[in-house]
Design goal:
With about 230 residues, the protein is α+β, with helices and mostly antiparallel strands. The chain contains ten helices and four strands; from the N terminus they run βαβαββαααααααα. Strands 2-1-3-4 form a four-stranded mixed beta sheet. The two termini are about 30 Å apart. The structure holds glutathione. Glutathione binds next to loops.
């Protein structure tokens, strides 16, 4: 079976699904839509008018990143979740935790003053403390296997790394050693590298520029000039 992953160039939730599909070696192509000007077929197919949606060649449509990732796990022969039911449930819960944490990236990008930005960083660090405490010192979050939790967190860590380039101190080795090591591992992974729009970093900085928050003041001039309206995602 072949799949079409409907995407928006900046969307981290699409990237999670893309990594999960690659992890399971499923056959898929990515189609980008412009969410500022969405095509009629997309509005018809996507119940929440959001990406990702995954369309099978049978015409069946799936939506919501976590539900799609669960489908991928069920559909693929190669399984990722642990067989122990408690461990399984915990990994699913951490994927939800990571998806909620994804919205901190939006908060970081829009806070106008350094102080407000600092409060978001503090709150994010506390969430990262929780995740750090749950890791076990393996190569990845919960062991040595690249799993669905890695598919979930890689898009978050990638964007954190982008922000860290202009405002260092988001992921600190002293406070989050295991997460830093996982981040290094994931940024070097081809499944992660191949899961985004090829110009993601530039698009991301442009988006930060358009949001005109504190972070935009730290960008190089080329990203500061746009007066285009920023999308909220
Ligand atoms: N809970 C959804 C969130 C998806 C989401 O927010 N997608 C954004 C792009 S990153 C979107 O399509 N926004 C369009 C809109 O809100 O109209 C999921 O995990 O699939």
């Amino acid at each position: 079976m072949k799949f079409k992953l409907v995407s928006f160039n900046l969307c981290p939730f699409v990237q999670q699904v893309s990594i999960a599909l690659s992890l399971k070696h499923l056959d898929f192509e990515t189609e980008f839509v412009d969410l500022a000007n969405p095509p009629a077929w997309f509005l018809e197919a996507s119940p929440l008018k959001k990406v990702p949606i995954l369309i099978a060649d049978s015409g069946q449509v799936l939506f919501e990143s976590i539900a799609i990732i669960e489908f991928i796990e069920d559909f693929a022969e190669q399984k990722s979740y642990p067989t122990d039911l408690f461990e399984r449930s915990r990994e699913r819960a951490w994927i939800q935790f990571i998806n909620q944490m994804m919205w901190s990236l939006f908060d970081l990008s829009v806070k106008g003053s350094k102080e407000e930005y600092g409060s978001v960083v503090d709150a994010l660090h506390k969430k990262l403390d929780e995740l750090e405490a749950a890791t076990n010192g393996g190569k990845f979050l919960f062991g040595n296997t690249f799993s669905l939790t890695e598919a979930a967190i890689a898009p978050f860590l990638l964007r954190l790394n982008y922000i860290d380039e202009i405002a260092p101190g988001l992921l600190e080795k002293a406070r989050h050693p295991n997460l830093c090591a996982v981040s290094t591992e994931l940024m070097a992974d081809l499944r992660v590298q191949n899961s985004t729009h090829k110009d993601l970093k530039e698009l991301y900085f442009k988006q930060l520029g358009k949001r005109k928050g504190y972070l935009s003041t730290l960008l190089s001039e080329e990203y500061k000039t746009s007066n285009e309206k920023a999308l909220i995602y």
